[in-house]
Amino acid sequence: MIIESNGITIERLREKDIELVRKWRNSQFVKQYMNYRETITPEMQKEWFASVDNFNNFYFIISYKNKKVGLGNIKNVDWDKMEGEAGIFVTKQKFIGTILPVVGSLTLSDIVFKILRLNRLVAQIRQDNPRSRKLSLLMGSKIADKQEGKESQLYYLTRDDFYKATKKFFMLMIPMGFSRGKMSISFDEYDFDTGFADKFISLLETSELIFERVEKDGRVIFYEDME
After folding, report:
1. Among 215, 211, 149, which residue's Cα sits nearest to residue 187?
2. How far apart are CA 30 and CA 24, in angstroms?
């Protein structure tokens, strides 16, 4: 599955990319912001991927201008409580302090609330990661009770708080060089063979957004109808 929105592309993580993600995750730049900081082996990475390659975990490679720049996720989705845990990282220092992490977070959260229709996201953020804590608060998140002194602190974000806090960010995208317009979501044969596509399409059909279905070059593509 590939989603294009807000000038970036997010692609469902496949086994072909897990070695790239492992290298990112083991880099000192990324590892310093994570709770788990041990070296991840190829075998560990394969075992991890097998455990998350399902409809309760959504991991996406984030690309901008045809370059892979990070990883975003909504994991451990509880479909009864309609909530999940969010996370995102960029791969290089040069992206820190730019609007790219903001656009990535906006896009993923928009999908969570409008298509997955979750009620709440939670996130575990290290106390020594001030940029992520600041971004989370700017997105409308609130810190949970009794988090003082904890190395990793729990934040939560509701749909209403997200859209109240981020209206200004969506308006700033075009002046900052990121397009706003139709979202497109495409599925290939693998998505259908694994049952992922059918489940996601059922969510599209009941989402608050309206999509037009097109079949092209062996893919099924849903284009957001903006009219």
Report:
1. 215
2. 7
> Which amino acid, residue 203?
L
Q: Angle 18-26/42-52 helices, nearest 10 degrees?
A: 120
Q: Which domains does the chain carry?
A: 8-179 (3.40.630.30), 182-227 (no CATH)
Q: Where are the alpha helices (DSSP H) in the chain?
A: 18-26, 28-31, 42-52, 100-111, 130-138, 159-172, 189-193, 196-206
pLDDT tens-digit map of 179-215: 666 799 999 999 999 999 999 999 999 998 999 999 9
Q: Are 136 and 121 in contact (CB under 8 A)?
A: no
Q: Which amino acid is at 127?
A: Q
The SS3 call for residue 127 is: coil
Joined together, the tokens standing for residue 63 give: 């690309």
The 10s digit of each residue's pLDDT in 108-166 is 999 999 999 999 999 999 999 999 999 999 999 999 999 999 999 999 999 999 999 99
Q: Is the pTM of this model over 0.70?
A: yes
